[in-house]
């Protein structure tokens, strides 16, 4: 670009746009007032545009006001990018794909522990419920909920879960605590709609020998976290997988109803393209995941 001036000249312009006088701008730049004035006149001559109205205080012209945010954004982006690159120096980026609910409820709370144990890893987390094919730049590795059938991929079992109903203490105070699963049919039951992988009330009731018929519910939830939030608010009883409500149960915000064992038919698996599982940074991540998974058995 023929009209692109030296960086020092652009910096002088950017600083001058934030000060009332050339003298104040010169103090920030640690140069003389005349040096700043010379650089700005050179810039105006190069671009053929008046950038400042001179007087007791500096005022940007219309052209200067238009160019000022562009130049400021250039320096801010450059500084941020350089900071990121310096932070990444000596670190290995690992792109991890998982579902939103697993990331929010299980993985995110444990990431500080990963950073302490493996400071060389720079994890980039992506969330999606879509099937992953590892094409293009989708991700390096993934954590998926399923039955472990991932042809052509390296697959490792992490952990399974229990499925059970939960309710808020407020709801139980208002309606009483159901003494058996049959009494639960009189409660408002929160329905997770659509997702094939979501726990189903009809399957759970069948496992305890009861028939389940459609309810008079007014809302169906398209997201697991929204269903849990509705339970926390006392709107009804939610059917959940155990790892989604670890914290809520431990701190008393939700209460598990009935000690009825019902293993989820699905489990969490680590998957990645075959061959890369032996790369040192992926080995470190896999081993860390396995240790964390053992803590929740």
Overview of this protein structure:
- This protein has 297 residues and is of the alpha/beta class.
- The protein is built from twelve helices and eleven strands.
- The strands form three sheets. Strands 3, 4, 5, 6, 9, 10 and 11 form a seven-stranded mixed β-sheet that branches.
- The longest helix is centred in the N-terminal third of the chain and has 27 residues.
- The relative contact order is 0.13.
- The model has no long low-confidence stretch (mean pLDDT 87).
List keywords for this structure.
297 residues; alpha/beta
How large a portion of the residues is in β-strands, by DSSP E? Answer: 15-25%
Radius of gyration over all CA atoms, rounded: 29 Å
Low-confidence stretches: none
- Profile the largest sheet: 7 strands, mixed
- H/E element sequence: HHHEEHEHHEEEHHEHEHEHEEH
Decide which structural class fits the backbone: alpha/beta
- What's the average pLDDT? 87
Give the distance, in angstroms, between the N- and C-terminal Cα atoms: 62 Å
- Principal-axes shape call: elongated
Number of strands: 11
Number of helices: 12
Helix content: 40-55%
